[in-house]
Specification:
Structural class: mainly alpha
Mean pLDDT: 81
Helix content: over 70%
CATH architecture: Up-down Bundle
Oligomer: single chain
CATH class: Mainly Alpha
Distance between the termini: 39 Å
Strand order of the largest sheet: 1-2
CATH superfamily: Ferritin, core subunit, four-helix bundle
Bound molecules: fe (ii) ion
Low-confidence stretches: 1-7
């Protein structure tokens, strides 16, 4: 059975990045990137659905889709800030 702890202890120094809030590993950076890719996909889908709702004059759906689109854009912004902190430790100081 695989254990994460010994593997983590053996991570090369190049895979660890120190920031003001602690150590960020390459795995954390990969998770942030994957989460951001999902947000980008959601933004494209909700953007398309919002355009369709406008064309079809579905005002109730338009309002809900606009609200959801803003939530997805905000999540993307938070992930961008995390990624920038992870990539540029000086910016996080
Ligand atoms: Fe999302």
């Amino acid at each position: 059975m695989l254990s994460a702890t010994p593997f983590r202890a053996s991570w090369p120094r190049a895979m660890r990045f120190s920031t003001s809030s602690g150590t960020v590993t390459l795995w954390m950076r990969a998770l942030i990137a994957a989460a951001q890719a999902i947000e980008h996909y959601e933004i494209t889908r909700y953007g398309t659905l919002l355009a369709w709702a406008k064309q079809l004059r579905l005002s109730e759906a338009e309002g809900l889709l606009q609200e959801t689109l803003v939530e997805e854009e905000n999540a993307d912004e938070v992930l961008s800030e995390l990624a920038e902190d992870a990539i540029n430790p000086a910016a996080a100081a």
